[in-house]
Amino acid sequence: MQEERLQDVQQIAASFGAFCGVTGDGAAVAWGDPDFGGDSHAVRHQLKDVKVDGTVVTWGENYPGGDSRAVQSQLRDVRTIAASSYAFAAIKTNGEVITWGSKNPPVEAEELPAVQHIVASHEAFCAVTTGGRCVTWGDRKFGGDSHAVEERLQGVQQVVASFRAFAALTGAGAVVCWGDDRFGGMLPKEVEAKLVKVQQLSASHAAFCAVLATGEVVAWGQPEFGGQVPEHLQNRLTDVNFVGSSKSLFCAVQHSGHVVVWGDPSRQGEVEEVEEELHDVCSVCASSHAFAALRRDGRVITWGDPGFGGDSSKVALQLQDVGKRLKPRIKRSLSETRMTEKAP
Asked: Which SUPFAM superfamilies does the annotation name (predicted)?
């Protein structure tokens, strides 16, 4: 059973519709939609001692980066990896960046000196150099051009991305946004005034959230994607340690290990099914429509749409029926995305 294999988990990562957990013995366990990497059987023999030597193993659909053979010889000593919807960018221990996948415009190596961190929107990347400078590339409609705010992007500590925008946290605790205004790329003045001593940023599909030094949270963007905290939850959002996010929900983890979820009203209730198990939470990861919470005892608690990784209880998903069951959900999700893009 997958539930039995999800013990002593050290780290969780997510794609659009699947999760992968790394256990203490260096094994990797994947679940969710096979089209989005939820089935790692084909490379299981390579998924041992994960993260030890920095070698990269890819699986899933070929065109968005599941096939890395073109750059495989370069994918050694990799420190971290970022993903857009169609491409990957890997940072090696020497700060060099290797990219692969489709819709992957080339970026000159000299533009990316000693990269520390990379994040991605739907079709753009933003790299933070060791000097705290931001370098962006990709489709400008998705935040691939940050020249308009370049002077303000100094001493950058963190960058997060919504579907079509980026938000950066500077060393002074200030927040700088760029990209599509409808997706949080414009910071309202009344929100900016509240962003004092920001500690962490998080992003959903069309909204951003900031955790302040006081443990309070401030959100902006489209309300149905978590850009506005409901009044009945504001009193509960105190002593927050950090915030994770799915496509339409934010999940705040308090220092006590409890969680608070807000965003899409139609999905907020999903967490109630596992609420009693959500204690001593130390980390939260999300696919587009599901969450995986890592507890301090190494157990993983999942909730949300089972087709996107919300149910980790079965190790052997009956894959022959998965495509038929999931394609309508994926089409519906993509349809929602197009509708959001057209929103005024």
From this structure: RCC1/BLIP-II
